[in-house]
Design goal:
Blueprint: H1 22-25, H2 27-36, H3 49-57, H4 72-83, E1 87-92, H5 98-110, E2 116-118, H6 125-128, E3 130-132, H7 134-140, E4 147-149, H8 151-158, E5 161-165, H9 172-175, H10 179-183, E6 186-188, E7 198-200, E8 206-212, H11 223-226, E9 229-233, H12 240-257, H13 266-281, H14 299-317, H15 323-334, H16 339-351, H17 359-366
Parallel strand pairs: 1-8, 1-9, 2-5, 5-8
Antiparallel strand pairs: 3-4, 6-7
Helix pairs in contact: 2-3, 3-4, 3-5, 12-13, 12-14, 13-14, 14-15, 15-17
The structure holds adenosine-5'-triphosphate and magnesium ion (MG).
Length: 373
Amino acid sequence: MDTGTDPGADTGNGRAVQRPPAEVRHADELRRLAETDTGERPPGWALSLTAARRFIVGDPGTGITRKFVGDPSLIDRALVSLATSRGLMLVGEPGTAKSLLSELLAAAVSGVSTLTIQGGAATTEDQIKYSWNYALLVAEGPSTRSLVRAPLLRGMAEGRVVRFEEITRCPLEVQDSLLSPLSDRVLAIPELIGPDAMVFARDGFNVIATANTRDRGVNEMSAALKRRFNFETVFPIADFETELALVEAEAGALLHRSGVTAAPRRDVLEVLVTTFRELRAGQTVRGDAMDRLTSVMSTAEAVSVAHAVGLRGWFLRGESGTAADVVACLAGTAAKDSPEDLAKLRRYLEQQVSWRRGGQWQALHDARHQLPG
Ligand SMILES: Nc1ncnc2c1ncn2[C@@H]1O[C@H](COP(=O)(O)OP(=O)(O)OP(=O)(O)O)[C@@H](O)[C@H]1O
Ligand SMILES: [Mg+2]
């Protein structure tokens, strides 16, 4: 038992971290890649481009797992961008693994993926560049001791990749604070005097920003800032089998972490992934047109529904979850944006499910009454 500690203190309580950063999750692979890496490394990089690519797309021969599913040429272009003086902007639909890819790229290039700015309406320049420790500021005035370095300043000074998540959610003037770091590679701290007043970026520094196309778009970004990024679009996974395999692997790993020992059932996952793909595309596998949902039915959402299905099955009944659990879990995903989506989902379960073969499709159809409302 934990006794005598401040209840607010971060003791960890011996509990595992829910999601360690990529460089911790894959520390062993990064170490092995660095040890065997014979390729040329751009200045300041932890790995060569080819080793960084293998880290992300996988290399079965040497036991490096595939972490991002998608076009390997996208990874090449992303890595080349990071070696240039332009930033990398990953854009795409929600849940297409833009954040995951930016994390993996930062871990491969710099060995660190935690120099991250989370963009939002309330993001300020302080959170991007630097702020002050007010007690020290009052006691000593502005100094390198009272300076609190935010991710951009640290990335520049240490020569590492900085991640800027959801950049388009920030006010435009805050976005524009990236202009001189990206073009002149320098950040001024006017409060300091002498050499400390200018922080010059070191080799290895660059910025990976992400933006999703459903929120405020990249169109509103200033032309000056756009020009300082190479844009890459991350697309949803095109192929059914690939998406199914990813959902199976990811949901399996999440369930394992949640203490569930029953692996997800393949026939249930097939139903789940097919349902997601059809509701996303507005077309059934046999080619019938149907209503597409306005909610995002991304692979990331499919993974979290598969996780929830497994949890329901295991913790409510001691088994691995069925298509009836899919219906129960779908409602919360599909009805986010509009109540109409719930009606569309109900129509889908009534009209587009009963003609299919397979016990789990039948179970999905039978469970349609479990949709709320
Ligand atoms: N192509 C893919 N490769 C690997 N994992 C994927 C892929 N597409 C989706 N995923 C799943 O989605 C999760 C990542 O979603 P992530 O949060 O990175 O998406 P995002 O594009 O940043 O979404 P958002 O725009 O909502 O921030 C992964 O953990 C994985 O389970
Ligand atoms: Mg994201």
